[in-house]
């Protein structure tokens, strides 16, 4: 398999007409000079005619080859070779929710028939069986974690094909470092969902909801007050009912009365170098405050010699600093949000919970902060966040799906390895020039 980098320069081969024309011109017979007698002419040994003709032909061929290889160097030919069979070394991962799409099933059948292994994006990466019913997945799967797990299980794979809906909620945390080529096949759900994400009782006969309207392009929030106070489904909000003075979703997640809620006390400490992040956080808190039943009270302070958290009774503490001050906190009741020590760009959740301590969270310093108000609502809502359908339908940008390519990425992969032939052409050209000069010297002598 060949590839021409600069094919337009093939017109340079027209230059071959120059030595051809010179050669044909030199083949003409010389002028005939008539003399009276040859008796006075001395005899002299002359080169054999056959040797002269051979040198001329050889010189002609060498000069043609020099022009040909010079043109090929400018064109730059690359040779491609496939190391392994892609079909045998490719792992296909697909979201279970997409198995209901006929187009996706056709693609999976084609990939499976070509020898590729197809697995589901689940915790155990179970094999796809077209005869089995579509599995129901209760929790969203973090695609970054799935890719890391698949890379560990399939370290000899040349390629992993991810068939996903590319929803932002499926990408949480730091991009993984993968030593395998990743190919994305996206099937977007082109629809809009309208779902409640928070609700509370107002007075004696009303319910206040925070409604999220979301599609692939983005999510917007709005308030809705429902005055009907009975056990019927609320119009436009399927599966959500009011019964015995409580709001519930399929009999779960009973919500408290608004008069029992207290203010949310928030303390923010920030270093001077994180002033810009502090302003973004303040704006996000103000936005979230419009959609929470509680009122957020903010104590915003710069971290200096006078900064102290002794006897702080705040419900949440944000410390935007590379070296946050040490203090004793109540892990049961106080939420602590620190800057994520990983400075690389984060996709998905900006605020992630720690696996080591209760009520400890990390805030990504490099992320899309337009998502922060939604996550603050989840963080501060004293009522249970309503577990309805996945309401966040926002999509992820193509550039955000690029994984970190491992430095030890093997070159022994199932893809075209393009190698330039120019180094070999230069060697041949040098030999041709040396040969041409040598033959020209012999002819002249």
TrEMBL record:
Pfam family name, one: BatA
Ranges where the Aerotolerance regulator N-terminal domain occurs: 1-72
Top-level taxonomy: Bacteria, Pseudomonadati, Bacteroidota, Cytophagia, Cytophagales
The protein's name in its UniProt record: BatA domain-containing protein
InterPro entries according to UniProt: Aerotolerance_reg_N, Double_TM_dom
Key words, A-Z: Membrane, Transmembrane, Transmembrane helix
Transmembrane segments: 6-25, 57-75
């Amino acid at each position: 398999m060949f590839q021409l980098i600069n094919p337009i320069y093939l017109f340079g081969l027209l230059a071959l007409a120059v030595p051809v024309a010179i050669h044909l011109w030199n083949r003409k017979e010389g002028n005939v000079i008539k003399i009276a007698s040859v008796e006075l002419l001395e005899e002299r040994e002359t080169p054999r005619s056959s040797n002269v003709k051979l040198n001329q032909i050889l010189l002609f061929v060498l000069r043609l080859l020099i022009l040909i290889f010079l043109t090929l160097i400018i064109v730059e030919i690359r040779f491609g070779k496939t190391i392994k069979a892609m079909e045998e070394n490719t792992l296909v991962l697909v979201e279970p929710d997409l198995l209901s799409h006929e187009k996706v099933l056709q693609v999976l059948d084609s990939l499976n028939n070509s020898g590729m292994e197809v697995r589901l994006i689940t915790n155990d990466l179970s094999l796809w069986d077209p005869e089995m019913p579509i599995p129901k997945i209760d929790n969203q799967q973090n695609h970054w974690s799935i890719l890391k797990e698949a890379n560990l299980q399939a370290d000899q794979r040349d390629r992993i094909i991810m068939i996903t809906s590319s929803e932002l909620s499926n990408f949480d945390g730091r991009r993984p470092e993968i030593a395998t080529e990743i190919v994305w096949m996206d099937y977007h759900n082109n629809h809009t969902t309208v779902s409640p994400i928070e609700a509370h009782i107002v007075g004696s006969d009303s319910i206040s909801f925070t409604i999220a309207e979301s599609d692939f392009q983005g999510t917007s929030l709005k308030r809705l007050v429902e005055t009907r106070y009975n056990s019927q489904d609320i119009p436009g909000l399927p599966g959500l009912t009011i019964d015995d003075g409580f709001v519930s979703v399929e009999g779960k997640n009973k919500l408290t009365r608004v008069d029992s809620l207290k203010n949310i006390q928030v303390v923010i400490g920030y270093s001077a170098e994180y002033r810009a992040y502090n302003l973004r956080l303040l704006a996000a808190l103000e936005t979230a405050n419009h959609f929470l039943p509680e009122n957020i009270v903010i104590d915003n302070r710069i971290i200096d010699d006078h900064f102290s958290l002794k006897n702080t009774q705040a419900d949440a503490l944000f410390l935007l600093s590379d070296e946050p001050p040490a203090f004793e906190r109540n892990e049961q009741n106080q939420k602590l949000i620190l800057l994520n020590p990983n400075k690389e760009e984060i996709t998905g959740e900006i605020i992630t919970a720690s696996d080591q301590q209760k009520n400890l969270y990390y805030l990504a310093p490099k992320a899309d902060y337009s998502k922060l108000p939604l996550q603050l609502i989840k963080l501060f809502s004293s009522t249970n966040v309503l577990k309805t359908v996945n309401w966040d339908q926002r999509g992820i940008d193509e550039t955000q799906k690029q994984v970190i390519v491992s430095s030890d990425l093997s070159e022994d992969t199932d893809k075209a390895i393009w190698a330039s032939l120019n180094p070999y052409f230069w060697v041949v050209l040098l030999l041709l020039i040396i040969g041409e000069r040598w033959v020209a010297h012999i002819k002249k002598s």
